[in-house]
C-alpha cells in the first residue's frame, strides 16, 4: 500500500510538473502571438530599404500591416514611405528604422489612401516629420478615414488605441514632383490614382528603385474597391514601365522586377479592360462578361479565386460609365 501511495504521489508530481510546463508553453506562445509582427527593413540598394508585409488579410497579429513600406536614408535625414495602419505600429516602424540608421525620419510620403498607407501619420507628425501626399488623396482620406477605423476596431482591438486619421501636412499637385533630401532625388509620380484616388509611386532615379504603393501587387491578386479605377491605374502602370526601374518594391508581395510586376499586375489590368471593354461595346450582360473572362493566366496569384470575379465585375461596371 505504501508503494502504491508513493507511486501515486510520484505520478501527481509528474502531472503537476507537466501542467506547469504546458502552462509555461501556452504563456510563451501567447506572448509570441502578442508580438507576432516583426518589422525589419532589409536593403534593396545602398541607403534604400524595404519592409515586406504579410500577404494575407488584416489580423490582430499583423496589426493590419499587410503591405510593404520603404525607408530611404540620406545624410540629412530619412524618408519613410507609408506610415502603417495604427499609431502603435508607427512607433514600432520608427524603432525598426533606428536599427538601420541614426538619422531621424524627416519626411513621410503616403502613397495612397488605404489604411496601412497613412493611419500612422499622427505618430510621425508628433515626432516632427513632414507628411507628404498627392492632393488627390485628400478627399478619399477624409471620407474613408472613419470607415477604416470602424473596420479595424473589431480586428485590432487594443492595438488600435490612440490611432486617429491625421492628414498629410504637405499636398502635391503635379503629375510629377521632384524633391531632394540630403542629395537624394525623390520623384513622386501620380497619374490620377488607381487602387485609391491618391495612389502615387516614389521613384529614386539614382538607385533605380521604385516604391509603387498599391499600383503593383505581385504574388497575390490585386484588390479593387469602390474608389478604385482601372483606367488611371493602368496609366500609372504605364508610367512605371517608362521608368525601366532596376528594382520594384510593390505595394504587396516580394521585392521584384518590372517583368514580374507586368505579369502579376499590368497584364491583369490590360486583360480586364480589354475583355470588359469588348463586352460593354457588344452589349454582353454583366454575368456573361464575368463568366467568360479568362482567369487562367492569373490563377497562380494568391486569393485569385475570391478576387478575380470581383475585379471583373467592378471593371465592367466602371467601363459602362466611361
TrEMBL record:
Metallo-beta-lactamase domain ranges (all copies): 66-252
Entry GO MF terms: beta-lactamase activity
Enzyme class at the top of the EC tree: hydrolase
Sorted UniProt keywords: Hydrolase, Signal
Signal peptide: 1-33
Protein origin, superkingdom: Bacteria
Keyword tRNA-binding attached: no
EC number: 3.5.2.6
Family matches, as CDD domains: metallo-hydrolase-like_MBL-fold (cd16282)
Protein's GO biological process: antibiotic catabolic process
Name recorded for this polypeptide: Metallo-beta-lactamase type 2
Amino acid at each position: 500500500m505504501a508503494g502504491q501511495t508513493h507511486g501515486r504521489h510520484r505520478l501527481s508530481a509528474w502531472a503537476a510538473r507537466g501542467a506547469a510546463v504546458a502552462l509555461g508553453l501556452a504563456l510563451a506562445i501567447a506572448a509570441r502571438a502578442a508580438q507576432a509582427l516583426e518589422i525589419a527593413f532589409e536593403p534593396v540598394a545602398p541607403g534604400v530599404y524595404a519592409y515586406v508585409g504579410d500577404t494575407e488579410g488584416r489580423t490582430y497579429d499583423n496589426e493590419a500591416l499587410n503591405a510593404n513600406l520603404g525607408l530611404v536614408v540620406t545624410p540629412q535625414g530619412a524618408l519613410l514611405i507609408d506610415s502603417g495602419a495604427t499609431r502603435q505600429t508607427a512607433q514600432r516602424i520608427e524603432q525598426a528604422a533606428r536599427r538601420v540608421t541614426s538619422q531621424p525620419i524627416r519626411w513621410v510620403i503616403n502613397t495612397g489612401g488605404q489604411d496601412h498607407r497613412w493611419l500612422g501619420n499622427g505618430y510621425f507628425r508628433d515626432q516632427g516629420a513632414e507628411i507628404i501626399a498627392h492632393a488627390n488623396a485628400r478627399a478619399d482620406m477624409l471620407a474613408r478615414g472613419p470607415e477604416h477605423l470602424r473596420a479595424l476596431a473589431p480586428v485590432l482591438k487594443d492595438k488600435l488605441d490612440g490611432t486617429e486619421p491625421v492628414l498629410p501636412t504637405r499636398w502635391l499637385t503635379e503629375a510629377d514632383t521632384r524633391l531632394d533630401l540630403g542629395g537624394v532625388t525623390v520623384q513622386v509620380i501620380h497619374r490620377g490614382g488607381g487602387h485609391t484616388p491618391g495612389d502615387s509611386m516614389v521613384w529614386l532615379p539614382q538607385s533605380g528603385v521604385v516604391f509603387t504603393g498599391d499600383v503593383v501587387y505581385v504574388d497575390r491578386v490585386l484588390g479593387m474597391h469602390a474608389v478604385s479605377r482601372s483606367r488611371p491605374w493602368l496609366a500609372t502602370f504605364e508610367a512605371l514601365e517608362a521608368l525601366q526601374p532596376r528594382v520594384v518594391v510593390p505595394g504587396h508581395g516580394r521585392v521584384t522586377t518590372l517583368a514580374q510586376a507586368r505579369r502579376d499586375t499590368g497584364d491583369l489590368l490590360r486583360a480586364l479592360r480589354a475583355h470588359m471593354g469588348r463586352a460593354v461595346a457588344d452589349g454582353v450582360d454583366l454575368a456573361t462578361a464575368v463568366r467568360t473572362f479568362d482567369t487562367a493566366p492569373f490563377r497562380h496569384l494568391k486569393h485569385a479565386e475570391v478576387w478575380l470575379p470581383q475585379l471583373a465585375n467592378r471593371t465592367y461596371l466602371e467601363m459602362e460609365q466611361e
